[in-house]
Design brief:
Blueprint: E1 4-5, E2 8-14, H1 18-32, E3 36-42, H2 46-55, E4 60-62, H3 67-70, E5 75-78, H4 85-94, E6 98-102, H5 109-122, E7 126-129, H6 136-148, E8 151-159, H7 171-187, E9 192-203, E10 206-216, E11 219-226, E12 233-240, E13 244-248, E14 253-258, E15 261-265, H8 272-284, H9 295-312
């Protein structure tokens, strides 16, 4: 297979920032499993690309993303700034490169539709980076919902100080988007409408704390995102007719409370980043992975984010 060496998928990482470095670290571990060969790092800043390549003993680096296809590298992990995710991914997909593109894929749902059509026409795998789906806590909560469901209401809390360079992007696309996708992961596809959006904290021309309430099928969803809190909180509370479920992503703890008492459930599994990258590689090799997020999932998540952002800025 083009781009595969001894069963290993040849991969480039596009974007040599902090998250790009974390992706390279995870890929090098998968390299040790015989799944991939990390061939190159690409970044508009040549010095950053070189530094990352040297640190992880990667054969080459360059500034032109088109070099990925020119060198016969079959897959790319795109971890550039939010506003560049779609343009960079489009260039690669158009040239037959399999693409893993970080969330939210785009700020505009029509752009995601364009990528869907392009991926179909070129026949490549394109997977959005909705990493929280691969968290053992998310999987445990979903399993409990399958036992006790359906959910009457769910509250998501995603709180942590955002770095300065990310504050130029709306918080709904940066933080809240994860939980918007988790809603679809937990409940499947449903009709939805945004009921309310409340800006809790706004300063220096940006929203830093936001609450949104969405009717998703028969379930009421509340999203709370805070980009200033100097403490990292990642929680989901689920209420059904029979049980209260709390998932704490930071502490990898899931608790279910019923009339019979409280029970802790195991949330064990591999590192979510490694698991989602492993899933991407499996899909390139032609293996079906039922819970892998798709561009269609990204399209629906961005549509909800668009509506929340529109109401936020009215």
């Amino acid at each position: 297979m083009w781009g595969v060496i001894l069963g290993r998928v040849r991969v480039a990482v596009v974007g040599a920032g902090a998250w790009g470095r974390n992706i390279v670290r995870a890929l090098k571990e998968l390299e040790g499993e015989g799944l991939v060969r990390v061939e190159a790092v690409a970044d508009a800043d040549e010095s950053r690309a070189k530094k990352l390549a040297v640190e992880f003993n990667i054969p080459t680096y360059f500034t032109d993303v088109l070099e990925v296809a020119a060198r016969g590298i079959s897959a790319a992990i795109v971890a550039v700034s939010i506003d560049q995710l779609t343009p960079v991914s489009r260039l690669l997909i158009d040239r037959g490169v399999h693409v893993f593109v970080e969330k939210p894929v785009s700020l505009v749902s029509d752009d995601v539709l364009e990528l869907i059509k392009l991926a179909r026409s070129t026949g490549v795998v394109v997977q959005p980076g909705f990493i929280v789906r691969f968290d053992p806590v998310a999987k445990a909560v979903k399993e409990l919902l399958e036992i006790y469901g359906p959910a009457k209401y769910i509250t998501f809390k995603r709180l942590s100080r955002r770095p300065e360079h990310r504050r130029k992007f709306p918080i709904v696309y940066d933080l809240m988007i994860h939980d918007i996708d988790l809603t679809r992961y937990f409940l499947g596809r449903r009709r939805w409408r945004v009921l309310s959006v409340n800006v809790i904290e706004f300063k220096d021309g940006a929203t830093h704390t936001l609450e949104a309430v969405v009717e998703y099928g028969q379930t009421l969803i509340t999203y709370i995102a805070d980009g200033l809190l100097p403490v990292k909180i990642r929680e989901v509370d689920v209420v059904t007719e029979e049980v209260f479920i709390r998932g704490n992503f930071r502490d990898r703890e899931v608790i279910a409370e019923t009339p019979d008492g409280r029970r802790r459930h195991e949330a064990r599994g591999d590192e979510p980043l490694k698991e989602e990258l492993r899933t991407f590689i499996k899909r390139i090799k032609g293996l079906e992975v039922s819970e892998a997020p798709t561009l269609e999932d990204a399209y629906e998540a961005v549509r909800i984010a668009e509506e929340i952002f529109k109401l936020e800025t009215q």
